[in-house]
Amino acid sequence: MTAIRVLIVDDELLVRSGLGLIVGSAPDLELVGDCSGGEAEELVRRLRPHVVLLDVRMPDLDGISVLRRLRALPEPPAVSMLTTFDTDEYIGTALRAGAAGFLLKDTAPDQLVHAVRILAAGGSMLSPAVTRTVIGGFVEGGGPDAAALTLVRSLTGRELDVLALLGEGLANAEIADRLFLGTGTVKDHISAILSKLGAANRVQAAVIAHRAGLVRPTGQ
């Protein structure tokens, strides 16, 4: 099995070292490099990582600008933003720019490794601590959003089932188990969903699922 290639982009050497140790401890992950924001695009072009862990706030080149540059590449890696704060004002901007995840820097090592695996498999990952902030920021006001309802009307019944579970944060294999489908079939459904919704990634689709009222709020 080919190792998942990971690049860490952060202006703080100590943070890069700590995250690098975590990535390097997993047998199926390979740390291919680390750098600050200004070097990120060149290293991604040269090292071809599958996943980039990217700090949102950096002095030389901010994470959103780096994200946009990476997403514009011919075969962009999956990018998860890193932050210290669960109320980071850049969350919405990062997701709209194509970030596939948003993780806190103090995420537990096993959760970070799991997140990288999910991202490499084409999934999305939000730290539990930021999920409420992310979804809440998009669905404030209560009740289904008319625009989201219009979007999801283009989906088939099975695609709606898949989208609802995607909105809960489930990975492809978990959705497949829940709906008694093959993982390849789930992947095909998700590709169709993203195309129909005009969503850049699973996180944006999950937001639409919440806006359309397809996902029950936690605790209900």
From TrEMBL:
Any one GO biological process: phosphorelay signal transduction system
Biological source species: Kitasatospora kifunensis
HTH luxR-type domain: residues covered: 148-213
A Gene Ontology molecular function term of the record: DNA binding
PTM-bearing positions, type 4-aspartylphosphate: D55
Database matches in Pfam families: GerE, Response_reg
Entry protein name: DNA-binding NarL/FixJ family response regulator
Keywords: DNA-binding, Phosphoprotein, Transcription, Transcription regulation
InterPro entries per the UniProt record, alphabetical: CheY-like_superfamily (IPR011006), NreC/VraR/RcsB-like_REC (IPR058245), Sig_transdc_resp-reg_C-effctor (IPR016032), Sig_transdc_resp-reg_receiver (IPR001789), Tscrpt_reg_LuxR_C (IPR000792), WalR-like (IPR039420)
PROSITE patterns for the chain: HTH_LUXR_1 (PS00622), HTH_LUXR_2 (PS50043), RESPONSE_REGULATORY (PS50110)
